[in-house]
From TrEMBL:
Source species of the chain: Acidaminobacter hydrogenoformans DSM 2784
Full protein name: Peptidase M20 domain-containing protein 2
Gene Ontology CC: cytoplasm
Residues annotated as domain Peptidase M20 dimerisation: 175-270
GO MF annotation: an example: dipeptidase activity
Keywords, in A-Z order: Hydrolase
NCBIfam families membership: amidohydrolases
Domain of life: Bacteria
InterPro entries reported for this sequence: Amidohydrolase, Bact_exopeptidase_dim_dom, Peptidase_M20, Peptidase_M20/M20A_hydrolases, Peptidase_M20_dimer, Xaa-Arg_dipeptidase
GO BP terms, alphabetized: folic acid catabolic process
Family: Belongs to the peptidase M20A family.
Length: 397
């Protein structure tokens, strides 16, 4: 058995030794779900766990009160390995995405590595990232941290996500949302309709314009629009129409092109009806996942060594703000099995699986696998070099 393998086995033992503590922490998060930028309970509990082990905590990075950076320096030259923790829940549904599990998984991995720091090189960093779910203002905590430069010195970043199957490389797509408001002119719909400017018509035309383009969309391009306001009385010409539009595409260049097309659909509808309009968004663009093959290979080896069956590669039309990180530093974002194969996210069933024996087993698997990959990178310079060579950076648009 090699020296590195011995360290990995000790790491497994370290995680087993604190498994009950990790499970208790995850269950507490599950019992206290918090939506994005309101994760004060989660922030306090996770940072206290890390601070008690000697991690240096930086609070309020990128002006986000529930974000944190926790650092443990081995004192020896080597790579900076980031273990990413996300801990927000969904409105009404609670932890129906399993963030209670893998936020703790990242912390558990860091605590296990910390106990071995005398035998490691470089830095262990836990980055706490709020508001992953794109359902709150200023969603996309990782994007804000990327823009503030918190990943610029990171050599490799890792995060896990809950699923019904273990998937090493999941090809995720880019996502953006638009808030659109058309402003028209009210008038009596029967007595003087000619005096009105119908904002609702502009909203309907926008949807029709988008539908007219669908045959030209590339595969995995998805545009979904809803009307959230379209008038207050059936006998009055609506002078205000409010829309929300979700725009997804496989790659960032395609995504930017589709965003431009949707804007033209809006402009055309406004021109025809005579409405004025505003386009805005209080949520960050989530970039597609820029997969790092070498990191994924190391993670697959770690999963295999733990005796876990996995799927190597799969396309999925989900979006995740880890994509923004993946264009700044080498990144992996595997999915870990926590329940039955047909488990569907954002459901009551997924929430219950996030507080189950299978869920906690998956959490421990994720912690062990990330720790094993961290050891490879911190002790084998060739593997770290290969990961960097595999990285294909590109500036965030």
């Amino acid at each position: 058995m090699s020296h590195i393998d011995e360290i990995k086995n000790k790491l497994d033992a370290n995680i087993n030794a604190i498994a009950d503590q990790l499970i208790d922490a995850s269950r507490e998060l599950w019992l206290h779900p918090e939506i994005g930028h309101e994760e004060f309970f989660a922030h306090k509990m996770l940072t206290e766990m890390l601070e008690a082990d000697g991690f240096i905590i930086e609070n309020n990075p990128a002006d986000m009160a529930t974000a944190f950076i926790a650092t443990k320096d081995t004192g020896k030259q080597g790579p900076t390995i980031a273990l990413i923790s996300e801990y927000d829940a969904l409105p009404k549904l609670g932890h129906a995405c399993g963030h209670n599990l893998f936020s703790v998984s990242a912390v558990g991995s860091a605590l296990a590595l910390s106990k071995m720091k005398d035998q490691l090189n470089g830095k262990i960093v836990v980055i706490g990232t709020p508001a992953e779910e794109g359902v709150v203002p200023k969603a996309g905590g990782k994007a804000y941290l990327v823009e503030a430069g918190y990943f610029d010195e990171v050599d490799a970043a890792m995060i896990c996500h809950a699923e019904g199957r273990t998937i090493i490389k999941r090809n995720l797509i880019a996502s953006a949302s638009m808030d659109v408001k058309f402003k028209g002119k009210p008038a009596h719909a029967a007595g003087s309709p000619q005096e009105g400017i119908n904002a609702l018509t502009a909203g309907v035309l926008t949807i029709n314009n988008i539908n007219a383009l669908r045959q030209h969309f590339l595969p995995r391009t998805i545009v979904n629009a809803i009307l959230t306001e379209g008038g207050t009385s059936q006998n009055t010409i609506p002078d205000c129409c409010v829309m929300q539009v979700s725009i997804r595409a496989e790659k960032r260049d395609v995504h930017q092109s589709v965003i431009a097309q949707v804007k033209r659909c809006i402009e055309a509808a406004a021109y025809v009806t005579g409405c004025s309009f505003e386009i805005g968004s209080d949520r960050k663009i989530y970039e597609d996942l820029n997969l790092n093959d070498e990191l994924a290979h190391l993670f697959a080896d770690a999963i295999k060594s733990l005796g876990i069956e996995y799927i190597e590669n799969e396309n999925a039309n989900y979006s995740w703000d880890i994509g923004n990180v993946s264009y700044v530093c080498p990144t992996i974002a595997p999915y870990i099995k926590i329940g039955p194969d047909n488990l569907i996210g954002h459901t009551d069933e997924f929430r219950e699986a996030s507080n189950s024996v299978g869920g906690y087993e998956g959490m421990i698997v994720g912690a062990k696998a990330m720790a094993r990959v961290a050891v490879d990178l911190m002790l084998d310079s060739k593997k770290m070099e290969n990961v960097k060579k595999s990285f294909k950076p590109s500036s965030i648009v």
